[in-house]
Amino acid sequence: MTGLHNVGLQLDQYHAGMAGEDAIEFLRKHFALISHVQIADVPGRHQPGTGRAPIAGFLDELDRGGYTGSVGLEYKPRGSTEDSLAWAAAYLRAPD
Predict the structure, then answer these.
(1) What is the DSSP string of 16-36?
(2) In whole angstroms, what is the distance from residue 23 CA to residue 15 CA?
(3) Whole-number Å distance between alpha carbons of 4 and 16
(4) CA 4 from centre of chain
(5) Which pTM value belongs to this model?
(6) How much of the chain exceeds pLDDT 70, in percent?
(7) I need a labelling partner for 90 at 20 to 30 A (CA). Which of 32, 40, 61, 84 fits?
């Protein structure tokens, strides 16, 4: 796939975790190919902080690598949607 700039990988951190994979290690190994990321905590598929997935470390690794894409929040909120977004305040930033 050399030279195709409109083709990339989606890294679903939740599914990687549920499959027993290390999403951070996968991210490091395939960073150049990843063009979309989705997150949810493992298990339960709820917001970050409700399970055992190292989501803060995963998001930090995206920043360290210079990821400029979006991060999709593909979780089932535990509680209200508004309450489930409290964890994200530290990561939100205004668009350039």
Answers:
(1) HHHTT--HHHHHHHHGGGEEE
(2) 9
(3) 25
(4) 23
(5) 0.88
(6) 93
(7) 32
Which pLDDT belongs to residue 58?
A: 97
The beta-carbon contacts of 88-91 under 8 Å, at least 24 apart in sequence, are 88/48, 91/59
Q: Average model confidence (pLDDT) for the chain?
A: 92
Rounded Cα distance between 35 and 4, Å, is 12
Tell me the one-letter amino acid at 14: Y
pLDDT (mean) for 37-58:
97
Whether 37 has a pLDDT exceeding 90, the answer reads yes
pLDDT at 95 over 70: no
φ/ψ bin of 72: left (φ > 0), alpha (ψ from -120 to 50), beta (otherwise): beta
Cβ neighbourhood burial of 73 (10 Å; 0-12, 13-18, 19+):
middle
Q: Residue 7 and residue 84: Cα distance in Å, rounded?
A: 32
